[in-house]
Design a protein that fits this description.
Radius of gyration: 27 Å
Strand content: 5-15%
Low-confidence stretches: 521-527
Bound molecules: adenosine-5'-diphosphate, zinc ion
Structural class: alpha/beta
Distance between the termini: 39 Å
Largest sheet: 7 strands, parallel
Number of strands: 17
Strand order of the largest sheet: 3-4-2-5-6-1-7
Mean pLDDT: 89
Amino acid sequence: MDKNTILKQYFGHDTFRPGQESIIDAILSGRDALAVMPTGGGKSLCYQTPALLLPGVTLVVSPLISLMKDQVTALAEAGVPAAYINSSLSPEQLHTVYRNLRRGDYKLVYVAPERLTGEGFSALFQSLNLALLAVDEAHCISQWGQDFRPSYLKIAQFLSQLPRRPILAAFTATATDAVRQDILKALSLQNPFLLTTGFDRPNLYFDVQQPSNRLAALRRILAQRRGKSGIVYCATRTAVDRVCADLNAHGFSATRYHAGLTDSERRQNQEDFQYDRKTVMVATNAFGMGIDKSNVSFVIHYNMPKSMEAYYQEAGRAGRDGEAADCILLYGPSDIVTAKALIEHSSENDALDSQTLEQVRRQDLLRLNAMVDYCKSRRCFRGVILDYFGQAHGETCGNCGNCNSTFATRDITTQAQMILSCVKRVRDHLGYSVGVTLIVQVLHGSLEQRLLSLGLDRLSTYGLMREHTSAQIRTCIEELIAQGYLHIRPEHQTLEPTPRAAAVLFHGEQVSLSQRYQIAPQETKQRPKSTAPDQVDAALLNALKALRSRLAQEAHIPAYLVFSNAALSDMAARHPHTIEEFLEVSGVGEKKAAQYGTAFLAAIQAYEKGDDAL
Ligand code: ADP
Ligand code: ZN
């Protein structure tokens, strides 16, 4: 058998993605390899295909337990004998896995890094033919990376105990050169084949919005995507709880995930999301590394993440099935304050000495600045991302918020003067500064009790912006913060003028507001699609999805492990009538055709006859 047959027969794909083939060839020729590919780029196939072709077993080191179970289930669905070894196994289960391993029953075994140097484990591999050691998320070995895991250092120790060195292949989505060098060194890769594929994910739509009310903006975004599955990332646990409660109160099917929940609630919620029982997952960045759900059709960032690496990795969890998906970041100037505080008070690096710690913080701040630049950019968002990862690209992409918009500039000097003098007057009057809300109320001429009892209605700036809406006043204030005329004090969230305010108030400096207008509504924009949407029969697609849900429930596996959305779309476009035609569908391999073919063909036939009994 050759690699193309494996690809079709087991995984149901016709062609390899860019980069996959060269990595597989290198491994098959016995060479070590390091592959840098974006999340969703298809790293798994790069070691799964050789694993099926090489004699002996392939060991895959992977950091998260939930991911292993999912991968092994997916492999079993594709007809590949595989298992995993981690702390979730009972002694009896472990015993069975070891026995089967000794008998040579598996082609692939996933293992948690801390298990590698366990006595039984390394003894077992003294006597086995280990063909390939694949290290997933290999950047975890780098002390400079964001996800350093000391247990990854056990890999080298494990290798040194083997009678014969296997082929070594490392995979990561982290592109910086420092991390790459660290991986090469820490794993002692020998004359490795190096591959960095393009970082572009054309099916992802990127946008940044700066709403005055984030919760309302989030609800609007989710309302346009009802029934679709997606993740909402928040910066803190408190925000996760608040946002999740709000969404549920507004009738969205949301669940939550963060490190402050009990193990059992975390597991339950993750499963609810994975099995599509809940469509929206609200989470901190603790959620995701173990998530292999391919039908995530949007990733919304409720807060700005702390680096472009983190953003692209989290956003990249959308659209792994190749279908069009949206990555939207909700940004506000207060995010910078939160992110800085998180960097300053990070406890992850407690073990580092003060000099190293200082260096780490400096790097973190540089990363943060790049992230802020992205949020404020007027250029093609995809272009900004690819620049960051050092990849060439066209001027515009036609599939991001900025490419689909034009900018118009408006002079707001008068409004700026009103706001700045109001902030000053209120402070002079009270002897202390107040928050944004009260300033908006004063300018708007509100009759709020608090405002009246403080006597703020007697100020000359009271009601000065009566003909503006509160939201418009707020937008101007946010712009003044962004442009550095006002500043929010992090301790008390109070609004204060900066030294630059004087230029506007007394020296005639002009202030302008640049606003973005969307040219094309999101639905009609160009999007790359594997199957042209007009060829997909929507009613049939729904029927197929219903069938998929039923089969998944019966088998107790998540729906996307039966077939991906991409596979169902292709099916709904092709209307296969025979098993041969069914095998033509992208994502349908032999095992799945045998297992599910009859049911899906029957559904298609019933649909064509106009049978409502589906
Ligand atoms: P990564 O580990 O790089 O994030 P995965 O290995 O999980 O990515 O692959 C992401 C998705 O791409 C999966 O749904 C997989 O089925 C799909 N995929 C991978 N290779 C191919 C291919 N050659 N053709 C079509 N789909 C593919
Ligand atoms: Zn663009």
